[in-house]
């Protein structure tokens, strides 16, 4: 009674609940079997360890290691603790304590995970059990260094839908009404010869020939030429993405590039200027000249307007997230929580990314101006900006499949370097190429879903599942850096898509409050007052933040979903009945097809 | 009373009631002037038939103004100590433009000050919307003149900021002075609730709904150890207690009288909540008057002994003092103090200091300032929010309530809560602890009963605490947002347990608004005694009857609600607590997304109810 008032107030034994909840989806768990196993997953070893739980103290358990996961089951009768961690989540494995170290549980392993937690195991000093566990974990968590196949390749799971079929670029562009009189689809990059980090299929101005494209490519960093990402269904303004121009210290110019941007500008007759958003801070853009990059200057590009969006680079973001982890794991910095949070600058970065995307969306929608977005290489901040702007502009992307298509298109196909940014299967935890850019994007999406609770078909669990499998390597979706590498590795043949898991059990990921709206532009409020830390993700391992049991909430959501379906069905019946009365059988269903204007295609 | 009869006469006054009935709602500041067509052309019947029918506007120039003026007439009618409201009204009307923040379009029209309201009637070509503001809700007023026009900025108690651009310097100053004078009137019986007669409500409704007698019926079903005492029938024992209180059966009224003399303000320990599963209770009182001589009181000691004896055998007792040990000790100098260990065997004392009074008010003011400061740079916001300490107060209040609740539920102990006067932090802790423990208090009716019983009847001095909100320039005397802190804590509970409260944010916002300025009488006065003297119960309408009209009640419901029989233990970690944006940023943020969303959710659930009504479906058991 007299103990500190801030101790646990979890009346429903939430801790066990919460830890159990981390078990992976779609896994058949036979109680008689010690470890859940996926098809294709093989068991490597098991050991008795002491798990040093940062919240409940040491717990004796047995750890099972397979080629996919680390699974721990408590051996203590009063604890039902289960840990289920895919090895892909592991970023670093360290030995703690030496032969001479004394003190209880001071000898063992400290495992740093990519998902905002650390795991510590104490082992017996005798019998090389630590060395064994260290070697096995290192081997299977970092297959890259041991020339082992990635777990995603070994996964033999079967789902009743094929997630690889979700994204078909031709269909997606056709949905947008492309090609049309101004824009054509080109296969110039079919063998990834023009640009090895771009997809095979690109949409470019009708008036630019393939030769033009090749000449423009020489002037853009890594040949990432300006190509269309999205076209406004009504005013026909476009979002175009690319990398920085290779201006360099001498201020080089390229007539073809200038002409090309002018051609893009001319596809839109409403505004005489093309707006260029450079995602970087002004100084960074200038500094990039030293390494051959730069930005579009006024005197070279006459009919353009250039704005800098002040978003910092991958290194700044990485350090910021590191600071977030410092204040939330294992213990939350309580005494000055808000100012500590502020000093991480994480929300400030979120704000800048969102603000940039809002500007892009607003320019296209209200400003009726076509927009060109780039940063340095055009695969990090550019992807964030184009995809978030598209999410704001096009309600199609706010559905589950639409969002999958958005990720597949703007991130995966356009070469966001997932393998490098996440470090899949790579032991080099300090690699400067790693950065939580995609996580930041998902965080922005979450912030939007908070502000518009009815606008998204998916729920928080959907976003967290995507993030979990961003690291787990169970699915091929996020493996490798670009389409050409994925093609070479035959990813679609040899791995399963994350979307197979999700789409085969969609109800779990649905937001019951979703109300489909066509053509509504969402402008979130990107003020610090309206952004919050995504506690359910960043602090989810801390049992104290758990609030009402997730089960009833989810159950209630499911009820609401069922209710909604019932109403929709009833509505359809009524519509059918009334249309039958009107003896007009062709009731046109409303849907994404509305977005498709009737234009003849060039195929 | 002329006024009552007058204002409730016939259908002629329907329109006015309609306006007011809609006007007090949460988000509805512009109301539609619902008026039968025929009435437009004649002076409303009510005016003609009123006893002092010196209608100053016998020949109306325009139908709209007739109405306005008749409303204007209604307000100033009552006299107070020989002074008419009309003496405070410097000018009848002026042309003005109203700016209501960045989102709403400006309104232009004729501005009128009446006894209780500020009205803006759009010009003849304008829309048919009439804008209306209860003058009582004005917290501070600022005037500026330049050239031949002026600007008045009104900062309201519900944290809204309004700007009026008025033609004419003289008119501006007059109107400003009128608003200033009328908004700060302290007399209770001339306040608007005494004149407010909404259509569809009857006087006296719902007033019988909540008193302690009703709660006692529930306690009596659960245990026999307690009785309802009417020892305070004439408020002679305790000025701030209601007529009836629930006390241990073993203690007679004479002993209570002696206990009362030993407790500050006569607030002897009374039952706040009986926790049936453990058979233990939550009590509240004020501090004992031990003083420097360490006085004792045998009856007080006996009372607490009887409490333990009435609970399950061997139940321990905890005295939860909402002051620090140091402060409690210091209180002895001024005659107060705390229970001596030796005098109360079986009771253990705990100190959990809670901020109240001025520091709390200052925290509130700073927070509102920070929220309204739109210029401030973006990197400062979180540390600024932290520096306000508001969330720290929320955390402290919730964790102290958790402690009290845990004492009752986990330790199966009797818990007595008190601070000094026992009318602020004490009520905060006992009411929150009940919400945590008692599923019934989380229902719509149960929560209203809780507020009535644990705040209004328990003698929280609303009249003093809510005299001003966060904008007043006047130096705070008795103001403190204790009740707002309570509402904020409830909001945090609702956020953490989205299914467990039957009511939504709307009810909490309504209670905040009405506690500070209301057309209803519920939050008037500081105690039951005062309310009796002012005849609040017979002469004003109850907020509860206003809120429980089916149309209103539905909107206040939480559509996700599923009864939860368990205790709800909130997380009080700082990262689990949020700024209550719906209140503090209500007029700053664009209302669109979440409000619209809830409207949709509400509609969806409403349609569910309808079908359930006609074809009963099995409700899922959780």
Automatic annotation (TrEMBL), chain A:
It catalyses: a 1,2-diacyl-sn-glycero-3-phospho-(1D-myo-inositol-3,5-bisphosphate) + H2O = a 1,2-diacyl-sn-glycero-3-phospho-(1D-myo-inositol-5-phosphate) + phosphate; 1,2-dioctanoyl-sn-glycero-3-phospho-(1-D-myo-inositol-3-phosphate) + H2O = 1,2-dioctanoyl-sn-glycero-3-phospho-(1D-myo-inositol) + phosphate; 1,2-dihexadecanoyl-sn-glycero-3-phospho-(1D-myo-inositol-3,5-bisphosphate) + H2O = 1,2-dihexadecanoyl-sn-glycero-3-phospho-(1D-myo-inositol-5-phosphate) + phosphate; a 1,2-diacyl-sn-glycero-3-phospho-(1D-myo-inositol-3-phosphate) + H2O = a 1,2-diacyl-sn-glycero-3-phospho-(1D-myo-inositol) + phosphate. Residues 1-13, 579-593 have a biased composition (Polar residues). CDD domains: PH-GRAM_MTM1, PTP-MTM1. It is a peripheral membrane protein. Its EC number is 3.1.3.95. Residues 14-32 have a biased composition (Basic and acidic residues). The active site is at 375 (phosphocysteine intermediate). Substrate binds at residues 313-314, 375-381. InterPro entries: GRAM, Myotubularin, Myotubularin-like_Pase_dom, PH-like_dom_sf, Prot-tyrosine_phosphatase-like, Tyr_Pase_AS, Tyr_Pase_cat, Tyr_Pase_dom. GO terms for biological process: mitochondrion distribution; muscle cell cellular homeostasis; negative regulation of autophagosome assembly; phosphatidylinositol dephosphorylation. PROSITE patterns: PPASE_MYOTUBULARIN (PS51339), TYR_PHOSPHATASE_1 (PS00383), TYR_PHOSPHATASE_2 (PS50056). GO terms for molecular function: phosphatidylinositol-3,5-bisphosphate 3-phosphatase activity; phosphatidylinositol-3-phosphate phosphatase activity; phosphoprotein phosphatase activity. Pfam families: GRAM, Myotub-related. Heterodimer with MTMR12. Interacts with KMT2A/MLL1 (via SET domain). Interacts with DES in skeletal muscle but not in cardiac muscle. Interacts with SPEG. Lipid phosphatase which dephosphorylates phosphatidylinositol 3-monophosphate (PI3P) and phosphatidylinositol 3,5-bisphosphate (PI(3,5)P2). Has also been shown to dephosphorylate phosphotyrosine- and phosphoserine-containing peptides. Negatively regulates EGFR degradation through regulation of EGFR trafficking from the late endosome to the lysosome. Plays a role in vacuolar formation and morphology. Regulates desmin intermediate filament assembly and architecture. Plays a role in mitochondrial morphology and positioning. Required for skeletal muscle maintenance but not for myogenesis. This is Myotubularin. The lineage of its organism: Eukaryota, Metazoa, Chordata, Craniata, Vertebrata. The gene is LOC111139182.
UniProtKB/TrEMBL annotation, chain B:
GO terms for biological process: negative regulation of autophagy; phosphatidylinositol dephosphorylation. CDD domains: PTP-MTMR9. It comes from the Eukaryota. InterPro entries: Myotubularin, Myotubularin-like_Pase_dom, PH-like_dom_sf, Prot-tyrosine_phosphatase-like. Pfam families: Myotub-related. One of its GO terms (molecular function) is protein phosphatase binding. GO terms for cellular component: cytoplasm. Residues 206-584 form the Myotubularin phosphatase domain. Belongs to the protein-tyrosine phosphatase family. Non-receptor class myotubularin subfamily. This is Myotubularin-related protein 9 isoform X1. The gene is LOC111143195.
């Amino acid at each position: 009674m007299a103990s500190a008032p801030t101790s646990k107030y979890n009346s429903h034994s939430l801790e066990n609940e919460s830890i159990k909840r981390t078990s992976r989806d779609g896994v058949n768990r036979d109680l008689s079997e010690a470890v859940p196993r996926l098809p294709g997953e093989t068991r490597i070893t098991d050991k008795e360890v002491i798990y040093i739980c940062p919240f409940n103290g040491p717990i004796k358990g047995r750890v099972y290691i397979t080629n996919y996961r680390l699974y721990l089951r408590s051996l203590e009768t009063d604890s039902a603790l289960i840990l289920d961690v895919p090895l892909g989540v592991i970023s670093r494995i360290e030995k703690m304590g030496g032969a001479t170290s004394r003190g209880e549980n001071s000898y063992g392993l400290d495992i740093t995970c990519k998902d905002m937690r650390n795991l510590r195991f104490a082992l017996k000093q005798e019998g090389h059990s630590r060395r064994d566990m260290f070697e096995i974990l290192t081997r299977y968590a970092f297959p890259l260094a041991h020339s082992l196949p990635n777990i995603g390749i070994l996964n033999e799971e079967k789902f009743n839908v094929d997630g690889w079929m979700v994204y078909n670029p031709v269909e997606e562009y056709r949905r947008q009404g492309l090609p049309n009189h101004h824009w054509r689809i080109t296969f110039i990059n079919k063998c990834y010869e023009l640009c090895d980090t771009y997809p095979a299929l690109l949409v470019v101005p009708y008036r630019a020939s393939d030769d033009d494209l090749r000449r423009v490519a020489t002037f853009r960093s890594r040949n990432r030429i300006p190509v269309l990402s999205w076209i406004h269904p009504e005013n026909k303004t476009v979002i175009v993405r690319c990398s920085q121009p290779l201006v360099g210290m001498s201020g080089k110019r390229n007539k073809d590039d200038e002409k090309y941007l002018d051609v893009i500008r001319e596809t839109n007759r409403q505004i005489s200027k093309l707006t260029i958003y450079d995602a970087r801070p002004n100084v960074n853009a200038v500094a990039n000249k030293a390494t051959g990059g730069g930005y579009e200057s006024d005197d070279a590009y006459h009919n353009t307007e250039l704005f800098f969006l002040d978003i910092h680079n991958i290194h700044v973001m990485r350090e910021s997230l590191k600071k977030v982890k410092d204040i939330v794991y294992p213990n939350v910095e309580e005494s000055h929580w808000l100012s500590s949070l502020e000093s991480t600058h994480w929300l400030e970065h979120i704000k800048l990314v969102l603000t940039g995307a809002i500007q892009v969306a607003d320019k296209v929608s209200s400003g009726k101006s076509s927009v060109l977005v780039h940063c340095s290489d055009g695969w990090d901040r550019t992807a964030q900006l184009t995809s978030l702007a598209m999410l704001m502009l096009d309600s199609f992307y706010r559905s589950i499949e639409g969002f999958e298509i958005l990720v597949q298109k703007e991130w995966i196909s356009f070469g966001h370097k997932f393998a490098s940014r996440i470090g899949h299967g790579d032991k080099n935890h300090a690699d400067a190429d790693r950065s939580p850019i995609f996580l930041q994007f998902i965080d922005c999406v979450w912030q939007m879903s908070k502000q518009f609770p009815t606008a998204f078909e998916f729920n928080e669990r959907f976003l967290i599942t995507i993030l979990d499998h961003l690291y787990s390597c169970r699915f091929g979706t996020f493996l490798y850096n670009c389409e050409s590498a994925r093609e070479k590795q035959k990813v679609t043949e040899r791995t399963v898509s994350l979307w197979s898991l999700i789409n085969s059990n969609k109800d779990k990921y649905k937001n019951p409050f979703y109300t489909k709206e066509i053509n509504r532009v969402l402008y979130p409020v990107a003020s610090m007052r309206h952004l919050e830390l995504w506690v359910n993700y960043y602090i989810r391992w801390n049992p104290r933040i758990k609030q009402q049991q997730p089960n009833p909430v989810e159950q209630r959501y499911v009820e609401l979903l069922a209710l909604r379906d019932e109403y929709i069905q009833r509505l359809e019946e009524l519509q059918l009945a009334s249309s039958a009365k009107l003896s007009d059988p062709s009731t046109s269903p409303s849907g994404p097809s509305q977005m498709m204007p009737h234009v003849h295609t060039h195929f | 009373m002329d006024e009552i009869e007058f204002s409730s006469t016939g259908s002629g006054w329907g329109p006015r009631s309609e306006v007011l009935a809609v006007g007090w709602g949460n988000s509805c500041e512009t109301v539609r002037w619902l008026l039968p067509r025929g009435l437009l052309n004649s002076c409303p019947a009510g005016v003609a038939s009123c006893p002092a029918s010196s209608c100053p506007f016998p020949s109306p120039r325009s139908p709209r103004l007739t109405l306005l003026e008749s409303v204007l007439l209604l307000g100033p009618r009552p006299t107070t100590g020989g002074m008419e409201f009309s003496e405070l009204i410097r000018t009848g009307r002026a042309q003005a433009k109203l700016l209501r923040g960045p989102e709403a379009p400006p309104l232009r029209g004729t501005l009128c000050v009446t006894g209780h309201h500020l009205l803006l009637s759009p010009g003849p070509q304008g829309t048919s919307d009439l804008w209306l503001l209860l003058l009582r809700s004005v917290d501070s007023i600022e005037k500026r003149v330049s050239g031949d026009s002026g600007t008045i900025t009104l900062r309201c108690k519900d944290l809204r900021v309004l700007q009026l651009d008025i033609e004419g310097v003289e008119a501006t100053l007059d109107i400003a002075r009128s608003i200033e004078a009328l908004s700060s009137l302290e007399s209770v019986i001339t306040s608007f609730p005494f004149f407010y007669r909404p259509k569809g409500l009857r006087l006296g409704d719902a007033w019988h709904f909540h008193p302690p007698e009703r709660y006692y019926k529930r306690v009596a079903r659960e245990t026999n150890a307690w009785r309802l005492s009417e020892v305070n029938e004439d408020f002679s024992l305790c000025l701030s207690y209601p007529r009836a209180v629930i006390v241990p059966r073993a203690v007679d009224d004479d002993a209570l009288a002696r206990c009362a003399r030993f407790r500050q303000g006569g607030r002897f320990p009374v039952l706040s909540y009986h926790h049936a599963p453990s058979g233990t209770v939550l009590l509240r009182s004020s501090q004992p008057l031990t003083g420097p001589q360490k006085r004792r009181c045998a009856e007080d000691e006996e009372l607490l002994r009887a409490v333990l004896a009435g609970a399950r055998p061997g139940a321990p007792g905890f005295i939860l003092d909402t002051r620090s040990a140091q402060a409690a000790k210091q209180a002895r100098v001024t005659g107060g103090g705390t229970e001596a260990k030796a005098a109360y065997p079986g009771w253990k004392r705990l100190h959990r200091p809670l901020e109240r009074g001025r520091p709390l008010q200052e925290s509130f003011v700073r927070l509102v300032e920070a929220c309204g400061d739109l210029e401030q740079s973006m990197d400062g916001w979180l540390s600024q929010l932290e520096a306000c300490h508001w969330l720290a107060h929320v955390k402290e209040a919730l964790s102290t309530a958790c402690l009290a609740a845990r004492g009752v539920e986990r330790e199966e102990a009797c818990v007595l809560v008190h601070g000094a006067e026992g009318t602020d932090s004490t009520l905060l802790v006992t009411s929150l602890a009940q919400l945590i423990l008692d599923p019934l208090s989380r229902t719509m009716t149960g929560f209203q009963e809780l507020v009535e019983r644990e705040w209004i009847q328990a003698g929280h001095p609303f009249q003093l605490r809510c005299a001003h909100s966060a904008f007043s320039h006047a130096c705070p005397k008795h103001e403190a947002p204790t009740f707002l802190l309570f509402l904020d804590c409830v909001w945090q509970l609702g956020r953490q347990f989205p299914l467990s409260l039957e009511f939504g944010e709307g009810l909490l916002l309504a209670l905040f608004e009405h506690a500070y300025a209301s057309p209803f009488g519920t939050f008037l006065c500081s105690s039951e005694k005062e309310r009796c003297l002012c005849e609040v119960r017979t002469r004003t309408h109850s907020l509860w009857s206003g809120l429980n009209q089916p149309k209103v009640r539905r909107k206040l419901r939480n559509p996700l609600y599923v009864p939860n029989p368990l205790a709800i233990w909130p997380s009080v970690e700082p990262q689990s607590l949020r700024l209550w944006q719906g209140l503090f940023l209500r007029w700053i943020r664009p209302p669109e997304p979440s409000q619209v969303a809830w409207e949709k959710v509400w509609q969806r659930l409403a349609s569910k109810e309808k079908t359930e009504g006609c074809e009963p479906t099995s409700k899922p058991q959780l």
